[in-house]
Specification:
Length: 332
């Protein structure tokens, strides 16, 4: 290495001297349009139920949902991901595919008021089954993969019929992407895309979400269908399978603690890769910031930037609107 006066000629700090220099050589800059805001829909009018464990997030009736979605769009956010919250639960999760279900009504309201907003719907049964599992139960109380597929497909079609642009199955049943694709095509929704929660881990970081969605399993856990957190190669196998079944976008979830998985998936597929910065990952930063232990803005942006740096094209995050605004402010 060339040396002058005892120092290496290479001084990395030259490119860090001013904000102008740092900006010039910055490798990763998340765009607001990459962010997707998860939203929780409930029935009624004028209903806003804040979620304790998710500061800044509330369950909303369609009218208020439209207002918050409009604000998200105006901030430049790329889309919204809808979850339904309801007391109408049975063993088969039949309210998941009701024509007048909470998600279906919310999608209709959103697409009427904001036709250009990309609306993605979560397709799963856990919020609609009385046992709280993501599929139907078989005789022994275990989740019956194959029996669940038809109900998931029916749910996806009902979302498409309401106007969803993208359906996002999060149940982790094998074969669901193919089942949903063929049901959508048969019903005439060839243009509705599938974002598969391909590599979804059985994570402890979904806690606040389950409070928001009222979707905690009544017995047992989800380890029989969601992935085991120590496994990374398996994520690539899941992604390849979903791609072969017709997924248009794939997802890794959670995000911040699975950056290696995002990178591996990024390298294994040409499809857009989404990463879900989940409720617990968001809540950790919010809680520490509330205590004055972290600076919320810089900590949240650092995490979201890391997720993009790892290879995510899309980041699903409860911080979408704040982050979009912070990015705009930083650009001015
Ligand atoms: C439904 C679903 C869950 C999340 C998204 N879809 C919860 C779960 O699998 O238990 C978690 C999202 C989050 O924590 O932000 N299956």
């Amino acid at each position: 290495m060339p040396r002058t006066g005892g120092f290496p000629a290479v001084r990395h700090r030259r490119l860090r001297t001013t904000e102008g220099m740092r900006r010039l050589v910055r490798e990763t800059a998340p765009r607001p349009s990459q962010f997707v805001l998860p939203m929780f829909a409930v029935a009624g009018e004028g209903v806003r139920q804040p979620v304790d464990a998710l500061p800044g997030i509330a369950r909303l009736s369609p009218d208020l949902l439209v207002e918050e979605a409009r604000a998200a769009r105006d901030a430049g956010v790329g889309g919204v991901l809808l979850f339904g919250v309801t007391d109408l639960k049975d063993a088969d999760g039949s309210s998941a595919h009701a024509a007048d279900g909470v998600v279906q009504e919310a999608v209709r309201a959103l697409k009427t008021a904001l036709p250009d907003l990309v609306v993605i719907t979560d397709v799963c049964l856990c919020g609609y089954t009385d046992h709280g599992h993501c599929g139907l139960l078989g005789g022994g109380g275990e989740v019956d993969n194959d029996a669940s597929l038809a109900v998931l497909a029916q749910t996806a079609v009902s979302h498409a019929r309401a106007g969803a642009d993208v359906v996002a199955p999060s149940d982790m049943m094998d074969g669901r992407v193919a089942a949903i694709r063929s049901a959508l095509d048969e019903a005439g929704y060839e243009d509705v895309a599938i974002m598969s929660y391909s590599a979804k881990y059985a994570s402890a970081f979904y806690g606040p979400f389950r409070e928001a969605a009222g979707s905690a399993p009544g017995h047992g856990d989800r380890r029989g269908y969601q992935m085991d957190p120590p496994n990374a190669r398996e994520a690539v196998r899941e992604v390849r399978e979903d791609e072969a079944e017709g997924a248009d976008l794939v997802m890794v979830k959670p995000a911040a603690t699975y950056l290696d998985v995002i990178r591996a998936v990024r390298e294994a597929t040409g499809l857009p890769v989404a990463a879900y910065h989940v409720s617990g990952e968001y809540a950790m930063v919010k809680a520490a910031a509330e205590r004055g232990w972290l600076d919320e803005r810089s900590a949240m942006l650092e995490v979201l930037t890391a997720v993009v740096r790892a290879g995510a094209d899309i980041v699903i995050t409860y911080a979408a609107v704040d982050a979009a605004r912070w990015i705009h402010e930083g650009e001015r």
